[in-house]
Write a structure and sequence with these properties.
With 131 residues, this protein is of the alpha+beta class. The protein has 2 domains: 57 residues, no CATH class; 68 residues, OB fold (Dihydrolipoamide Acetyltransferase, E2P), CATH 2.40.50.140. Helix content is 41%, strand content 24%. A 5-stranded mixed barrel has the order 1-2-3-5-4. Strand 2 and strand 3 form a beta hairpin. Helix 1 packs antiparallel against helix 2. The mean pLDDT is 88.
């Protein structure tokens, strides 16, 4: 139910804009009022029909989908933030230790997340054994 509400709220601005345009076209006699109403109803029906496909995009991500504890590779320098690759996915990352820099190509271990940014530390002999 929550996903449906989020989806409908996301669609409201486009429905409002299209509705205003169709009202303008109906008032200027380019389209009849009936045709404008039909077009608007088809737009809303299309968006409602697409909801089952789009539902996945409106679900909050499960904590199990975060790559916490996995190893990755720095794509660019992390000083303190940049991008890393973990399991073939590109993630925004930030070095957990203040003042620490990770050079491109270095192995990193994901230790946590803040928002959509992964918190990482450079992999060392000790951090590799902790896994």
């Amino acid at each position: 139910m929550r996903e449906l509400l989020r989806y409908l709220l996301w669609q409201l601005p486009s429905w409002g804009l299209v509705g205003l345009i169709l009202i303008g076209l109906a008032m200027s006699t380019v389209l009849s009022a009936r045709t404008s109403a039909l077009i608007f109803c088809l737009l809303v029906a299309k968006d409602l029909a697409l909801f089952p496909v789009m539902r996945v995009a409106y679900r909050p991500s499960a904590p199990g989908s975060w790559p916490i504890g996995q190893r990755g590779r720095a794509i660019e320098p992390l000083e303190p933030s940049g991008y890393i690759c973990v399991s073939g996915e590109l993630w925004r990352a930030e070095v957990r230790q203040a003042g620490k820099r990770v050079s491109p190509g270095s192995a990193v271990v994901v230790r946590g997340a803040r928002g959509l940014t992964l918190l990482v530390e450079e992999e060392t002999e000790g951090s590799a054994r902790e896994r």
